[in-house]
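Cross-check.
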Amino acid sequence: MSNIPPVGQWFKSSRSEHASACVEIKFEDGGVAVRDSKNPGGPVLNLDGEAWDRFLDSGIWER
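Predicted model, tokenized:
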């Protein structure tokens, strides 16, 4: 069994399970979409693969 969700399916960050500030991620062909789990019909931030990699490498999400 894989822990990697299929392309096109929203999922919550494992780091957000018990927090009130949750985000959801969706892998798409060539990129990643991010949205607020409390407002699934709201705005979506779309990042290409390179921008997503830079975000992860930045470590800002580790705060």
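The first strand starts at residue 11 and ends at 12. The helical segments are 49-58. Passed to J.P. for a second look.
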